[in-house]
Amino acid sequence: MSDVYHLDDAVRAMIRRAKLVSLDDSGGQQMMGLAGLKGDSPRKVPRVQPYGFTSNPPADSVGVLLSLGGRSDRAMVIGVEHEAYRPRSLPGGATAIYDQFGSIVSLVEQEVRVVHAQKVVVSAPEITLEAGGSRMTISAGGTDIQSPALRHNGRNIGETHVHTNVQPGLGNTGQPAA
């Protein structure tokens, strides 16, 4: 029986829950200070993140502390999240990237949603938006819109628009007709 208890203790020492206390994000890998079991406070534990994604979780986030072979010098943290900020009730198959300030980029069914309470910034040397046969390209050279129709406040301002009150000579026209 003592071998079973010894093995049970070894497994508990290898895999446990830990709460984030501090984080150093200045190096090649994030290093975390954690609060684990009573009296257990590992420091400078590397956080393993998936390639192409990084985050800086707020204090009190929770993750899994793995100590390979039960050794603290082989510890790493995975799966860190904060329950207060995690989006809830996403449908099956949905994916979301979020932060503690209410920003969220989500892939839900047939939509890509970008939500932020203050401002969304898209920055690139050239930005192209395409939808249903229309295309808008924004670059340093200007904005090019290719579309079967172009409207502003319900008025046709595209290449097929006409004006009211056209006066010959040097006069001005009225607003574009609806």
TrEMBL record:
<dbReference type="Pfam" id="PF06890">
    <property type="entry name" value="Phage_Mu_Gp45"/>
</dbReference>
<protein>
    <submittedName>
        <fullName>Phage baseplate assembly protein V</fullName>
    </submittedName>
</protein>
<dbReference type="InterPro" id="IPR053861">
    <property type="entry name" value="Phage_Mu_Gp45_N"/>
</dbReference>
<dbReference type="InterPro" id="IPR013046">
    <property type="entry name" value="GpV/Gp45"/>
</dbReference>
<feature type="domain" description="Bacteriophage Mu Gp45 N-terminal">
    <location>
        <begin position="17"/>
        <end position="83"/>
    </location>
</feature>
